[in-house]
Amino acid sequence: MPVAKPRSREHAIAIFRAGVAAADPQLAVKNFLKADSEQLHIGSESYGYRNGNWRRIHLVAFGKAACAMADAAQAIIPESWLAGKGVVVTNYENIDLVENCQVFGAGHPLPDAAGLHAAKTIASRLRECKSGELALVLISGGGSALLPYPVAGVNLAEKILTTQLLLASGASINQINCVRKHISQLKGGGLARLAAPADLHALILSDVLDNDLSAIASGPSVPDDTTFTDAVTVLESYGIWQQIPLSVQKHLQEGVQGLQIETPKSGDPIFQHSSYTLVGSNATSVDAAAKAAADLGYQTQIYSKQLCGEARLVAEQLVRHALSLSADIAQPIALIAGGETTVTLKGTGKGGRNQEMALAFALAAEKYGLTNAWTFLSGGTDGRDGPTDAAGGILDNDSLQRMRDAALDPDAMLNDNNAYPALKAANDLLLSGATGTNVADLQILLLHPNA
């Protein structure tokens, strides 16, 4: 049996950290926001600039990187230009003091009452915006859950239940967001609708594949071209329509019938004064991780920048790819990927998509006979994987034996969606703490030549 390489684990963690560092939210804002004595300059030479002598700037930030982004922005913008204190909303783990800003903590991945209060505060601030003023909106991953503002007739508990059912169904993040947009007052362009007719510019740190702006935090500042019919179709296709609250069913059905206002679409006049700049993404972090791996002496390949699908199936595909390379390995290889997988909950265990993928990889490696020494890391760049304190998992050839030595059955644990205790018993949890950023997930597979 191949022996795990101790330094390989150190290397995997170092490569992961390099990917997270590349998504530094303060640096992302500083790269795209400048001020001189006369004007605020937003953008860059490659993206183009939006300049203005706005003297009332409404600063709003939400997402897991909100505090860091807001801190960078308020340090750049002259205080006299700010229209009162900025409003910042982030998850509890990432709360930090930000000068000239009011900071709110809120629930993630499930919304809570504190998030509702924060969302109402942001909505109130944006309603104050007037023509000729600027709403500067700093958006990062996690914003969908952090700003729950249900439509009239749907309460927070009913929206939370709907979100829970969607998260457990195996629906993709885009499908989940489609439903959330249609039962929310801020998502799907709702925020832009509130800020009109003021100028609006969003600096966006992306946590979704393809940097689809309508998916990041459920697209509060951009058009939404999904419909009420699409939302109903998602719920029906995953067999949860009958389980969602009657108030949600009623609102969506009324939307299909044209009795509720649709989300604003492309071409809507409210977007005439709205623009955005993408300041960071998962792809940027994947590239940084690949560079770090190469600097450590690994022959480096980017496996995917759009990793998606059921976590355990994606893990099996990666094992098969590794097997196709294994016979020809002359020097250590690093396969780097980024994206966001999903988990269909069928058990009652504890874990997250990264922990599930890591455990599934180890089991598939054993099943298919991956004989090379390997180390596999799958982690969320935000430092939190599902409702746990771990960012994900880091496993090697010996992980399954460590679990079995602890009297655990890793196959049974995976089938119960119970990766967390399995990885904990093997000392294989990736514990990074909250990172203050969020650009989805990173996967790192290090393969070594057979002796």
Q: Describe it for me?
A:
- This protein is 37% helix and 20% strand.
- The chain has 16 helices and 15 strands.
- The protein has helices spanning 6-21, 25-30, 66-76, 113-127, 143-146, 156-169, 173-181, 190-195, 228-237, 246-256, 282-295, 311-326, 353-368, 399-405, 410-415, 419-425; strands at 33-35, 40-44, 48-52, 57-62, 86-91, 101-106, 134-139, 199-205, 274-280, 299-307, 333-339, 374-380, 392-396, 429-430, 441-447.
How would you sum up this structure in a few lines?
The chain has 451 residues and is of the alpha/beta class. The chain has helices at residues 6-21, 25-30, 66-76, 113-127, 143-146, 156-169, 173-181, 190-195, 228-237, 246-256, 282-295, 311-326, 353-368, 399-405, 410-415, 419-425; strands at 33-35, 40-44, 48-52, 57-62, 86-91, 101-106, 134-139, 199-205, 274-280, 299-307, 333-339, 374-380, 392-396, 429-430, 441-447.
Question: Could you list some keywords that capture this structure?
Answer:
451 residues, alpha/beta, six-stranded parallel sheet, six-stranded mixed sheet, 15 strands, 20% strand, globular
Helical coverage, percent range: 25-40%
Query: Assembly type of the shown chains?
Result: single chain
Low-pLDDT runs of 5+ residues are: none
Radius of gyration: 22 Å
Average pLDDT, to the nearest integer?
94
Helical element count?
A: 16
Number of strands: 15
Taking the alpha carbons of the first and last residues, their distance comes to 11 Å
